[in-house]
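look at this fold:
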Amino acid sequence: MKNPKHDIGLYENVNKQYATINFIVKPNMAPPTFRMHWHEEIEIQYIIEGHNIARCDSDIVEVSQDGFYVINSAEIHQSIGGNRRHATIQF
């Protein structure tokens, strides 16, 4: 179910053909690591090392090593600062 309040040009379609849960560990990354986007899945980002500053809709979230944050379904988000290695779960 797409949220009409968000720009369809920012929509990221996550391939669910083979799994219902995506788990990804990403190497050390410095922002901007991905463009502003949204998707239907809930996303949990766990910071393995380093820290991250993210924009989730109009909120700014700062998370340090061993911390995590949750991105709701249809929430526009983007990494805007920090340098981190992290794990992402989308479902």
Notes: The longest strand covers residues 43-56.
